[in-house]
Amino acid sequence: MLFEIFKFEIRYRLRRPETYIFFAALFLYSLIAVDSLFGGFPDSIKMNAPVIIARTMGIVTAFFMVVVSMVMGVSILRDFEHNMESLMFINPVQKSAYLGGRYLGSFVVLLGIFSALLIGTMLGDFMPWKDSETLIPFHFWNYLQPFLTVVLPTLFFGGSFFFVTGALSRKMMVVYAQGILFLILYIFTLQLAEGSGNQTSVTLLDPFSFQTIRELTEFWTPLEKNSQLVPFTGMLLYNRLIWITGGVLALIAGYSRFNFNVVRDKSSKKTSQTNGFKELLNEPSNLQIPTISIRFDIKTKIWQLIKHAAFYCKLILKESSFWVIAACAVATIFINSINLSTIYGVNSYPGTYLIISELIELSIFFFLLIIIFYSGELIWKERDSKFDQIHDALPVSDFTSFAGKFIGLALILALLLLFMVSAGILFQTFEGYHNYDLRLYFMEFFAGIFVFLLLLTFLSFFFQSVLNNKYALHIGVAAFLFTGIGLLNQFGWSHPLYLFGGSFLPTFSEMNGYGHLLEPYFWIKAYWFSFSVMLFVMATLLMVRGTEIGFITRIKLAKQRFTKPLVRTALGAFLFFVCSGSYIFYNTNILNEFSFPSTQKEYRANYEKELKKFEHLPQPKIVAGNLNVDLYPHERDFIAEGYFILVNKHDHPIKEVHIQKPPTNSITLHSVYFERASTLNNTFENYGYYIYTLENPLLPGDSLKMTFKQTFTTKGFEDNSNTDIVYNGTFFSNTYFPSLGYDEDIELEDIADRKEHGLEPKKRRASIHDPIALKEGMAEDDGEEIHFEVTIGTDKNQIAIAPGRLQNQWTEGNRSYFRYKTDQPITNFYSIVSADYEVTKDVWFQEPNEPVNLEIYYQKGHEYNLERMMNGMKKSLNYFSENFSPYQYRQMRIMEFPRYRSFAQSFPNTVPFSEALGFVMDIDDEKDVDMAFVVTAHEVAHQWWGHQVNPANVQGKSMISESLAQYAALMVLKSEYPQEKVHQLLKHQMNRYLKGRSNEEQQEVPLVLVESGQDYIHYGKGGVTLYALQDYISEDSVNLALHRFLRDWNSTTGLLKLQTDRYATTKDLLDYFRAITPDSLQYVIEDLFETITLYENKAVSASYEESSKNQFVVKLEIDVTKLRVNESGAEETVAINDWIDIGIYGTNEYGDEELIYLKKHRITDEFTEIEITVNQKPTKAGIDPLEKLIDRKPEDNAVTISGVRSNTAHF
Amino acid sequence: MNNLTITNLSKTYSNGVRALNNVSLEIPTGMFGLLGPNGAGKSTLMRTIATLQEADTGSITFGEIDVLKQKNEVRKITGYLPQEFGVYPKVSAEFLLDHLAVLKGIRKTKERKELVETLLHKTNLYIHRKKKLKEYSGGMKQRFGIAQALLSNPKLIIVDEPTAGLDPAERNRFHNILCELGEHTVVILSTHIVDDVKELCPNMAIINNGEVLLQDNPLRAIEQVKGNVYSKTIKKEGLEAYQQAYNVIAERLFQGRKVIHIYSDSNPGNGFVPIEADLNDVYFSQIFGDKSLSGTA
Q: What distance in Å separates the CA atoms of residue A157 and residue A152, rounded to the nearest whole number?
């Protein structure tokens, strides 16, 4: 019997179109899944690496959970849906056979459908767009193994669970909702885990296990990721077992709860019977039907439309499914809003724009769901409830009937958005934040997300009405949205005129509002809106009304239905579409130059091919700059004129001066004059590259004045608009001015892009032995130390800031002018900043009595962390001037700039600091590191590391600038804050390093040779290793070494620097470290800086014995493996002869755990047994308890002491 | 008053079923019965008049209105009760009727309220007006269907198998309402129950396999067969023999035995007795009878 039902089920499913639709959808998505999910992954990790395949399969399974639900959930339910249950259950079928047969049959079909995932992923690697460079050789097992270990258990659990809920609830809605609920449940656990910082629960409980895999392979190097399967052991195995058990339990519960009774609805029958008798007594009334007035004028039509929309709105509000989705969205928001995390786990103040972006990010999924689901439901509403014949014969126009549904859904969306606004305000209130920005709420939700949602609704309505197949379309519309847009981007087709809907509302900045970005946004939205109206008219014409459903018939009918108002609407929309489209095109492509990413890449490749020959052509260096910059913030223009003094620092004459105009079309270089006669060769004008031949060559040591005038002009709007020069908060650097010679920064960087254009991979940074690069510093090759003067004119209400001392400040009409001049040379690296600022000032005195002016320029309302930043400046200047060398400038300024970019950057005595970074951090001193303080300290440290010592432009450069700044910041933090804050920060640094190396694009290198772009090394590893160094040889020793390094290599006064024209390298730096390191610890320098060395430290067991009163002998067994990464990237075990911390914890009088013993022991073997006597009862013991060494699994470094030792204690 | 004129209407479905074959009918004001077995094409014809379906050829006019082209004009004056319909499950009768009245163009809230209340009283649903429609019994739902068809004082009422599923009392009440309407309106009533037509309709047509077999006044139609219908009570087993020998137009059981009616131009003898023909005999003779009758009709 079971087998009969099983066979019947399979045969039934094979006849159903959904089975094939699901298969096809899954197959098509699987083909492109890897590309769309892992498109941004580093090149070093191959696109078919086992880890990628496993995670892709996990994620795709999660996305298609709704399919699992639709397949498994309906297998019993459909008997009820089709009112077949009475017929089915009257047959002498056993419950076990009925349920078992249906379950097995459906599950086999489900497996068949999901085989599309396996096949699709495999075939995906052979698609024409794949590049064999990004793939490893094909291995069937790499695909099958994750399918069996990741997908199959998920399907079993999901399938069993959905089967049971479908059978027990007997409601189609449950089948829909549960697939979604499943996903939400998962988002919950993810959020909770993120909040607590404990990933173990997620690793264990992620039902799809793709997070488990991510966690397990987080610190795998690219080599490991490309070569190893995710082992089906440990956490992954437990995770899968948990969910398989869950599936079994669901089946058992389902089997015992299910019974064959048919009637479940208790109330429905009774009522009709009690009233039946009464009715018969009621004589038919002889009431006259009153005469009524019926109108069909335009007013009535509008009124009908409103009433109709309200009707559908009410219908949705009556759906329990709607409330389920809405409740889930609210729950997600409330659970999640707790984390407004920005950097290093520090929350931001719940400013309105942050809250809104959180709300939108969290809820957008639900909105999409509502649109996709309810546009189908509404369009099918009458047909599903069989009311269509009555409804379709009503005297309402096609438009009213269709638009009523559309507006009804739009009302629902608007209602939800209003709800979100209240949720946001409520959340802000709970957080004690009362600066609600209602205007911003309105903009973001209604001008922003609502418009986007409406456009999607148009699209969804169009497909639903034209294609006339509800279920296929739920999946079809979703697939279209996810893949269509992704694919367009993938191929680099990014013009807003054909990217449906255009972009989201531009970034809001409290400094600049939406700035100039709002106008193009509205144009593009208007353009797509008119397009959507045309779609809407087409959908109205083609929608099913009456019983004619054939597509051809509907097309024939459309002519009849194309009434005058519809014609007018379509025509109007078309006209507007063309006009707005033309206007956008005029702005983006005629006023401005639009180039596809591919065109841009080609331009850059050609630049390199044609001009690379000039790279090493000797050029004079800039030694002084004197500029007049007239900034017009509201026009977003500036005019710059002035001069550079160029000097020939080479030992032979220079005949040609090559000028590179900044590579943006907004900048026009109007004139360049040299003090002596020259001729211009503009062969390379299309690259903005001009060659001036001097009639009389510039002799060695000779100088030359170069005068120039350039403008930056904004015309109309562009697709990818400039956000450096804005209404309020302009910030740009000297890259906006002409430079000398070939500009390497224009070259293509991405390896794949370069290959496509026949270029070898680019060297990330010149070799540490490269004689030419050694003579370049931070400014690369335009000249390093310069005298600088600038006059900046700006709007009257704005303050303009550049490096140097403010000489003069005046206003003329409605403009303000500021003149800055440097007292001493600065690096050729300066910024121009202008905004309507508030200022806070203070003074710090450099010994003996030199005042240094401290200033913070900030946006009104961003006062939160000014004190921390000011304190950071003072404490840093104190520490650095005492320990490294005196501060070289008489001022130190921090200037806020809009959140289009989120970093802080240290220019000579000025630090532009992003609005997004430290100004709005809500620092809780209990649990957070004072990141405003740390970032400030880091930037101030750059005045030494970067501006006092200018590192040579070779490998290791950023160790000198960034790692030393990071070290300096850590030391200031250490001197001002408790030790655990330092450890908290170090832990972040360690994670940054370990995560970064696992995503390395090319190859990890030791710190001394750090390449450009390896910030995980120079920040992450740099901080950790320099901290470790001072732990080994003492803070004072390290600082002494740094002091000597500065003394010798200061770029203007350094003793050694004065004797050479090269700049300092890490080799030089290490010499100073070596000099102050005792012989026994010299190996540390090699381990930390010159090699990639990792440890696998583990405490195996620990026990203790109370030898006498208050004398406890702890016996600790440890396991130490020291690894080193060789040239090819593989890890090798190396011999140990290291000093490593051994620590023992006890309990202090407050009941807190604290280290009662911490001392470095010399470890020479892999397994070591150590005996230590402490005078307090020990609780835990371990190796490297403070995690100073690089160890991917520090959590096993300590063990709980197992108690009193006995003879039988395990070894 | 306007007549509904159907001329040479044909419709073939995409699956090849020929639902209407050259149908021509002239339907005057008053009740018009469309009689035919299930699948005869009644509903197709009704849906076509109600603007829900296209015809392949032919035309329908109602007064000045070309029904097949000026759909919206037709919809403004039509009340339609489909053979089978559902309702929005979660709304009440009163709420839905009010909304339908809105869609029919009744602007004034007061008028709408009065109209809805009257119709609810008339269909005896007033006490259930707040109840959710999904809780309605079959008969109540049918009455709701009638109420909605009467919104907006229609000039043309199309009711497709309206009495199916109604108990005798409900059916009776329904007939009363229809009668009242038939005084000023074209009411097309399709049914396979002969009594419905007999009780209500001054005009009728019999339709089968998409063709009109007869259009007439019921009394005149009965007149046609008068004197030609004979009845006999036979044993159940003997039916086949009789069917071969005679033009059997109806059979039914009476106290466990079979009563057959035959159509015959002359008295067949053999125990057959002439009977007073009724509309049933007309109907069955049209549906099952031989072609000779159509000739005489």
A: 9
The range of the structural domain enclosing residue B57 comes to 4-216
Interface of A with B in 534-563 (CB under 8 A): 545-548, 550, 553, 557, 560
Q: Cα distance from A90 to chain B (closest Cα, Å)?
A: 24
Question: Which residues on B lie below 8 Å from A279 (Cβ)?
Answer: 124
Q: What is the ipTM of this complex?
A: 0.89
Query: Does B132 share its domain with B265?
Result: no
Task: Report the C-alpha gap between A832 and A817 in whole angstroms.
Answer: 13
What is the strand order of the sheet B211-216 is part of? Answer: B78-81, B156-160, B186-191, B30-35, B203-208, B211-216
d(C-alpha A461, C-alpha A401), whole Å: 13
Q: Measured between CB atoms, does A290 come within 8 Å of chain B?
A: yes
CB B153 to CB A292 under 8 A?
Answer: yes
Give the pLDDT confidence of B66-111 residue by residue, as tens digits.
Answer: 999 999 899 999 999 998 898 888 899 999 999 999 999 999 999 9
B150 touches chain A (CB under 8 A): yes
Distance CA A992, CA A998 (A): 10
User: Which one-letter DSSP state was computed for residue A760?
Assistant: P
CATH code: domain A1092-1211 is 2.60.40
In three-state secondary structure terms, A13 is helix
Contacts with A1010 (C-beta within 8 Å, 6 or more apart), sequence order = A955, A956, A957, A958, A959, A963, A1017, A1018, A1022
**Which of A69-83, A238-252, A585-599, A852-866 bottoms out in mean pLDDT, i.e. has the lowest?**
A69-83
| pLDDT value of position A307 | 94
Q: Strands A891-897 and A1131-1134, how do they pair?
A: unpaired
Q: Per the CB < 8 Å rule, is B51 touching A547?
A: no
The CA R_g of chain B, rounded to the nearest whole Å, is 21
Per-residue pLDDT tens over the stretch A289-306: 788 888 888 898 999 999
In total, how many domains does chain B have?
Answer: 2
Maximum separation of any 2 CA atoms in chain B, in Å? 70
Which amino acid belongs to residue B274?
P
Based on the fold, state whether residues B276 and B148 are members of the same structural domain. Answer: no
Q: What is the pLDDT of residues A1061-1099, one digit of tens each?
A: 899 999 999 999 999 999 999 999 999 999 999 999 999
Q: Does B43 touch chain A (CB under 8 A)?
A: no
CATH number, domain of B66, equals 3.40.50.300
Which CATH number applies to A950-1090? 1.10.390.10
Are the beta carbons of B249 and B290 closer than 8 angstroms?
Answer: no
Same domain, B23 and B60: yes
Boundary residue ending a domain (B216, B242, B258):
B216
**H/E element holding A1144?**
strand A1138-1147
Q: Measure the CA–CA gap between A392 and A401, rounded to whole angstroms.
A: 9
Q: What is the pTM of this model?
A: 0.81
